[in-house]
Each structure stands twice: as structure tokens, then as C-alpha cells.
Amino acid sequence: MKALYLPLLLLSAMLAFALWTGRFVQQRTDHWIAMLELSDHLAVEERWEDAEDQIQRTYRDWQESQTFFHTILEHEELDESENLFAAAFAACDQRDVPDFHTTLAQLYTQLRLLAETQRISIKNIL
Predict the structure, then answer these.
(1) How crowded is residue 26: how many other Cβ atoms within 10 Å of its Cβ?
(2) Under a CB-based contact definition with an 8 Å cutoff, are residues 85 and 32 in contact?
(3) For 64-112, how does the pLDDT look when each residue is reduced to its tens digit (9 = 90+)?
(4) Domain 22-125 is of which CATH architecture?
(5) What is the pLDDT of residue 8?
(6) Which of 50, 59, 39 is nearest to 100 (CA)?
(7) Boundaries of every domain in the chain
(8) C-alpha 67: how far from chain center
């Protein structure tokens, strides 16, 4: 019986880490989406400087999580998010509301995909 303690402890630790990771990624992506939605709202109001400041704050916050995210997520998915951030900056610089809105919508989708890949579900297990 004692021989099972260590494997059970390791399995429990891995499960706890997986659950925590899924929740952490979900919280971070929800936070970034809320920040980007504010930027989108500011752009619609033609407050471009504020929209640019908000998206820069969002990107800085995004960057702070990248070391950890690169250890748990697919690099291609993170690279796609980086590309969409760059496109959003470009659309903001051009002051193009439809393009900015479209790019942010794609970024929302990409961020939700990141969170979904860490969720414990049958789809992810199989």
C-alpha cells in the first residue's frame, strides 16, 4: 500500500496543476478581452489616443504572462495572438474603425481559443 502513495501524490499534483493552469489562463484571457473591448469602445467614440493607450496597456499586460504561457501553450497559437496585436496596433494607427473592430474580434477569438486549449474537457482529452 505504501508503494502507491508516491504515484498517487504525483498524480494528484499533476491534476491540481492542470486545473490551476486552466483557470489561470481563463482568468488572464477574460481580463485581456475586457481590456480590448474597452479599447474598441474608445475607438468607436473616436477617442483614438485613449484607444491606443488602452491597447498598449493590454499588450504590456499580455507580455508579462508570456514566459509562463510559452511553457504551457502552443507557440503557434501565441504567435498568432502576437500577429493580431500587431494588426490591431496598425489599424489603430490608421484610425480605421471597421478594420480595428474586425482585428479585435479576431484577437478575442484567438484569446478564447488559448483558454479553451487549457480547459479540462472530453474534447481536449481525446
Answers:
(1) 16
(2) no
(3) 999 999 998 888 999 999 999 999 999 999 999 999 999 999 999 999 9
(4) Up-down Bundle (1.20)
(5) 87
(6) 39
(7) 22-125
(8) 13
